[in-house]
Amino acid sequence: MKILAGIDFEKDTEKVLAYASYFANNFNASLDLLHVLDYLVTPPAYLMPYIQEEKRNIGQKFAALKKELADSGVRAEDEVIAGRLRESFEMTIKNQNMDMLVLGYMSHVLRRSSSERLIKGLRIPMLVVRGDKAESAKVGSLKVRKILCPTDFSEISGKALNAAKELAVKLSAQLEIVHVFPNYVFEEMKALKDRDGLMRELYTEAKDTLEKFLHASGLAVSGTVEEGEPDRRIVSYAKEKDVDLIVIGARGLGRIEGMLIGSVTDAVLKSAPCPVLVIH
Prior knowledge:
alpha/beta, 280 residues, 2 domains, Rossmann fold
């Protein structure tokens, strides 16, 4: 397994290192650190001396990070690329056959942040490090004890469930599975005479479908059916259950053709209380 960590040397760097090294250590994976000097166009020749100096400075910063990782038993390689952000990551992922990308998370009101551009533009399993659970993460002192996997019974959520199952076994973590029944379905039934009976029937059907879905995935654990707006209920459920990691499909049922990240997953990423592993 090969893990790539996006490093920008901002406030989330320590947290990204902590999670990247934790997964590298538990999966006996190689770890590469990448920093991109983001240029929209190819830098003109007169900027090359500045770029080379910047690369030397970043190399010194990487040396300190690699020593920190080495002290915890994790070796890492580093690379600095001057170019367009997404294309630089795509090239590295393809050329190095990376299996997972670890990123920090930041959101801007008026424009996409660098992390959002990568999350929405790359098709690779991504561990997005965010939330209160990650605030105190340090290299060598991290433990994932509880994993939450939301499912909508789509093919991609089945892939997410398989990934969550593998992680739970490898990390000796407890696995929680939840299906959120959208509350707009119940809102549309307000005028019906036998609303309560239909609600019970729909709930029972969802519960049966969840059990069959879990059985088909080879899981003996039971899941939970909840009602609400899917993204909000997933986030609140993660808080209630003190979850350390959410594993979710990039997009589920009702997806718009061509979208890499669905609306529910995007909303969860914006407000999750813990890191989120997005599965494509």
